[in-house]
Design goal:
Spore Coat Polysaccharide Biosynthesis Protein SpsA, Chain A, 11 strands, 33% helix, 251 residues, alpha/beta
Length: 251
């Protein structure tokens, strides 16, 4: 079984244009993500899937693998699916290129359930919320699980609703924040990319709801750490500060 990490790196981000090549220390952000992925145990190959020649050349010149994809993909899943048609991995781990300090252990935690359980179609991660304010924040997707640690639903709302204490979240139920790292079986990735978007997904603006709608099972592993995600110029400043203090110790 071939196990590959594929890191989608779209250049034209609306909130932070050109972010894969934004410098953290003296290295572009995408190279930090690649280096972290290479440290995960059991991974056969690490690839960057990009639509930008500059990103491609940066990755390849640093000695890593990259593949060019079309510019007009509506989602990261579509870019991933196109890339894997060329890469041919049996299990694909989708690591975000804007998480330069992703914990390699989190990558391992995400893919191991699919190796031990052949009935599982996909894998992802979640981490406990720490404050009520975080639970209320619609930018932090929530996930609820069934008895087998499979996703029942993802939402930007605080789920489940606390009937007895409507404003109290943490402490009564293990509210979980979804982490957007995914593992796909190759046939599931191909199928997902071929399926049309659904109203649930379009309403919540959460692409993973397409998988649940079509009956694709998603195993959720709970981890203690949450990687810093870079979506805005302010996030980039935080990432640079983190790197100066301790991020370079992980490289």
């Amino acid at each position: 079984m071939k196990l590959a990490v594929i890191i989608p790196a779209r250049f034209a981000s609306s909130r932070l244009p050109g972010k894969p090549l934004a410098l953290i220390g003296n290295q572009p952000m995408i190279l930090h993500a690649v280096r972290q992925a290479h440290q995960a145990k059991g991974i056969d190959e690490v690839w960057v899937a990009t639509d930008h020649q500059g990103v491609f050349e940066t990755v390849v010149s640093a000695g890593y693998k990259a593949v060019m994809t079309r510019e007009d993909h509506p989602s990261g899943t579509d870019r991933l699916a196109e890339a894997n048609e060329k890469i041919g991995a049996d299990l694909v781990v989708n690591v975000q290129g804007d998480e330069p300090f992703i914990d390699p252990a989190s990558i391992e935690t995400a893919y191991l359930p699919l190796i031990s359980d052949p009935t599982l179609d996909m894998g992802t991660l979640a981490t406990p919320f720490r404050t009520n304010e975080e639970v209320k924040n619609p930018n932090f997707p929530k996930v609820i699980l069934n008895q087998q640690s499979r996703a029942l639903y993802f939402s930007r709302s605080a789920i489940p609703f606390n009937r007895e204490f409507p404003e109290q979240f943490t402490g009564h139920y293990p509210y979980l924040r979804h982490i957007g790292l995914y593992v796909y079986r190759k046939e599931i990735l191909r199928r997902l990319a071929s399926l049309p978007p659904v109203p649930l997904e379009q309403t919540e603006k959460l692409e993973q709801l397409r998988a649940l709608y079509y009956g694709i099972s998603i195993g959720v592993s709970v981890v203690g750490s949450l990687a810093l995600s870079v979506d805005t110029p302010e996030d980039l400043d935080l990432a640079r500060q983190y790197y100066q203090t301790k991020g370079h110790l992980h490289q």
